[in-house]
Amino acid sequence: MENIRDIDINKLRKNCFRQSKVPGEFMFQMRAPGGTVEAKHLLLVHEIAQKYGNGNFHFGTRQTFNVMGIKYENIEKVNAMVEDYIKEIEIERCKLDLEVDNCGYPCLAPRNIAGCVGADHCIKANAKVPALANKIEKVIFPSNYHIKVAIAGCPNDCVKAHMTDFGILGVTIPQYNENRCVGCEACLRACKHHSTDALTFKNGVITRNENLCIGCGECIEACPTRAFVRSKEVFYRVLIGGRTSKKSPRVGKIFVDFITEDVLLAILKNWESFSAHVLNGSPKYLHGGHLMDMAGYKTFKELMLKDIKLNPEAKVAARVNWTEMEYKANYNVK
Q1: pTM of the model
Q2: Is residue 2 over pLDDT 80?
Q3: How far apart are CA 237 and CA 153, in angstroms?
Q4: What is the mean pLDDT of residues 223-233?
Q5: Does domain 177-229 match CATH 3.30.70.20?
Q6: Who has the most CB within 10 Å: 34, 82, 155, 306?
């Protein structure tokens, strides 16, 4: 075995192996874009964990399959085992133009895209999350520039998209047919209790305040007569700069709102060129929110929206004011 002191930790990390507290042992992170894979792949996770790991695996906080206890001398064997898995997920499912061999993942920088179950199952969801995750994976992976993306099917944000570099929420523009409305006010009660109180009822007609409506769809779920239905096209809200951190955690703020899928993918395609601009073409282990801070919102907006034609419904934030957690609390010490 190679001397533990000679192991290139950074190289292995790029290969999706994370150093453990036990010298010479690593945790392997298997990507699962959108947090959804066929159940058959659990057999592979089981085999790696039993054969080369310590028999356990961890559901990663970014929805990766994390196999622990892999010794350095077995890393090449593990990489060979996941070759077919990477081909199936990254090439066949996500349609990446990627050359895959028995050397494992080519990079770690774009973190696994986290996602809720989405509209394939959830009655609240406006967007089909796993399908969108596959498309975004094709845009951001592989790359040496760091980015964290999370997708929630609706503004309930069960996946905590507000706490990541790019948080994506599926939204809708409720379509109202007053001829189907019976005036039961179920939509008003739902919007007031669960959302932003954006609806009013006057003279037998529901009025939606577009400045208050966040596109969640609660009115649609509540309506017994389908006077409210979802828009035919799914729209998205993008939050930026959110992060967890021991020093400066913060909630992401709205960057663009009510954009189409085509616009969303085009914006994300600009991430690598924006990152290269900020870092002078030299990738570093810095996450997206930090690059946004370094560039400033004006430059970020200019570069991320470069050559993009927004859909008519789209809104763009004129400015972003992040509020970070401060730990300088005024404790009364006795």
Answers
A1: 0.93
A2: no
A3: 10
A4: 97
A5: yes
A6: 34
